[in-house]
Amino acid sequence: MKRIKPIIRKEFAHIVRDPKSLLIVFLMPLVMIFIYGYAISYDLNNINIAIVNNSKGKLSQDFINAFKNNGYFTIINSMHSGKSKSSTSIPTYEQWLREGKISEIIVIPYDFDKKIKTGIPTKVNFIIDGSDSNSANIIYQYSEQILLSFINSYQGLDKILKINTKVYFNTEAKSSFFFIPGLIAVLLLMMSALLTSLSISREKESGSIELLFISPLKSFEIIIGKTIAYIFVAFAVEIIILLFSRFWFHIPIRGNLLILFIFSLIYIITGLAIGIFISTAAADQKTAMLATLLATMLPSIMLSGFIFPLDSLSPILQYISRIIPATYFLKIIRGVVLKNASVSNLYYEGFILILMAVVILGIATVKFAKERNKTK
């Protein structure tokens, strides 16, 4: 012990001299426990659905009430179509399905009441968003459970009332179709932030930051210059990831690639902005790297809808998810890749990402300018 005591004292001295890294080491497990404890849930609540009621009888209304009076579904629109055999509202609801506003459409046929009263077999149509195969399976189980409860309330109904289910966007129910695009979103944010988070902190360690401080360039010009340089790298990485996902995992790309690339560019700039902000605040590369991983990877995996549906999160975590860039890009990439979504379906998510990029870059510029002024 006499021989190793100096080493022990030396290491404790290093630990004490690096309080930021020590804080991250203690903080990360607590954050993970908090997030995992609240986020890990395979239950779905308040699932948004739409009902097209082509029949206007009492039985069809009782069927709708069965979906209203439960803790699973929220009916955002229930429409009496007034049509005999079809409904013009179905295409509108299918658009909502594509935009992610609803997860299921229930279509009650026009002769629903008549066939049940006369003992003729009839079917109720369930149209489910299958882009998330796990959630689609849970939604189907919930719907089937309510249908069985409705059937049991009427004698002999089990022999004539059946389900006709259609799954959109992922008919084969492959989980990779859902997780791979999500993984691309998580990796792209983390990688973009890492690229720039080491930029300024590296110059701080090497001492070359002083050359930037005394340069004739304005602070925002330095920040923009450092950001633009890495856009090309991040964009090239995204193209490689997309090609690998397409040809190795056979992920379909049903939408317009130009739309995806435009939104990806905005998302990459947002990630680079986060890295620049962390880099201006971090004292060294190690702290910058740890802070970047903590700020991007963990929230993006747990709170963006990558693994767990946002509806399954607690209200507090749902609010936190709104400040995570991956939450919005997940809707974009899954919408374009799986649902052939257009710009009109995704403009809100794009606007939020642009706003995030501008705000974060602005904060990073102000922080950099303050550090620069201290040296004058």
Oligomer: single chain
Count the domains.
Answer: 2
> Could you tell me the number of beta strands?
5
Question: What integer value in Å does the Rg equal?
Answer: 26 Å
Q: Between the first and last Cα atoms, what is the distance in angstroms?
A: 49 Å
Number of helices: 14
Q: Mind describing the biggest β-sheet?
A: 5 strands, mixed
Helix-residue proportion: 55-70%
- Beta content comes to 5-15%
- The 3D shape can be described as elongated
The ordered string of helix (H) and strand (E) elements is HHEHEHEHEHEHHHHHHHH
Helix and strand content put the structural class at alpha/beta
Report low-confidence residues grouped into runs of 5 or more: 81-88
User: Reading side by side through the largest sheet, how are the strands ordered?
Assistant: 2-1-3-4-5
Task: Provide the residue-averaged pLDDT.
Answer: 81
Structure report:
It contains 14 helices and 5 strands. The longest helix has 32 residues, at 175-206. Strand 1 (47-53), helix 3 (58-68) and strand 2 form a beta-alpha-beta unit. 66% of the residues lie in helices and 10% in strands. The chain has 376 residues and is an alpha/beta fold. It has 2 domains: 47-168, abc type-2 transporter like fold; 174-374, no CATH class. It has helices at 5-17, 19-39, 58-68, 89-99, 112-118, 133-152, 175-206, 209-213, 219-248, 257-281, 285-302, 315-321, 325-339, 343-374, and strands at 47-53, 73-80, 104-108, 122-129, 161-168. Helix 9 crosses helix 14 (343-374) and helix 10 (257-281) runs parallel beside helix 14. The protein has a 5-stranded mixed β-sheet with strand order 2-1-3-4-5, with helices on both faces.
